[in-house]
Amino acid sequence: MNNESLPVKLILASGSKYRRLLLQRLGLPFDCHPPDIDESGLEDESPLQQVERLASAKAAAVFRDYPAAVVIGSDQLAVFDGLPIGKPGSHQRAREQLCAFSGRTIEFLTAVTILAPASGFEGSHTDSTLVRFRELRDEDIERYLLREQPYDCAGSFKAEALGITLFESISSEDPTALLGLPLIRTAGLLRQAGFSLP
Fold first, then answer.
1. pTM for the full predicted model
2. Concatenated DSSP letters for the chain?
C-alpha cells in the first residue's frame, strides 16, 4: 500500500492522548475516534480475556461507523495478585495503590486489534509487561503524586515521565506497550494489512 496516496483511512479507536502520541511515531496519517462501548469486565472473565475482548470491541465499534477504514483498537489492563487494577481517579486511591505495589510486581496486559476490511485482514496481539516496584517510602509516594497527579493512569503512574523513578525493573518484549500501545507488533500488523513501513 502506498502511504503517499492511501486509498483507505486509518483510524485509532481511542480518545487516549498517550496512544495518539505513540501512533504518531509511525509517521502515518490517522484520525482518532473514541469508541462508545461498555468497558466493564464480565463475570468469570480473566484479565487476559477482558483486555483482548475490549481491544477487539473498540475496533469493531468504530469500524461499524467507518466500514471502509482500517481501524486500530487497543486496551490495557494492570493486574495485581491476579486481579485487574483500575485507574485510581483520586489522590487517596492512588496512594493506596502505590503503597500496595511497594516492593512487588504488577503485570500490564496491552492488547491491540487491527481490522482492515479492504484487504480482508484482521490481526491481534497482546503484550505482557512486568513492572517491579522498588521499596517505596510514604514520602516518596506523596511527593510523586503531588508532582505528577497520575489519577487517570492504571497503576497510578506515568512510565513515560517521573513514574519511571518508582521502578526497580521492567520486563517486556516491547517498551511502548507499557505506555498504552505495543508499537512493534502494531507496526507488524499494519504491514500485514498493506501499509508500507520501514
1. 0.88
2. --GGG-SS-EEE----HHHHHHHHTTT---EE-------PPPTT--HHHHHHHHHHHHHHHHHHH-TTSEEEEEEEEEEETTEEE----SHHHHHHHHHHHTT-EEEEEEEEEEEETTTTEEEEEEEEEEEEEPP--HHHHHHHHHHH--TTSTTS--TTTGGGGGEEEEE-S-TTGGGT--HHHHHHHHHHTT----
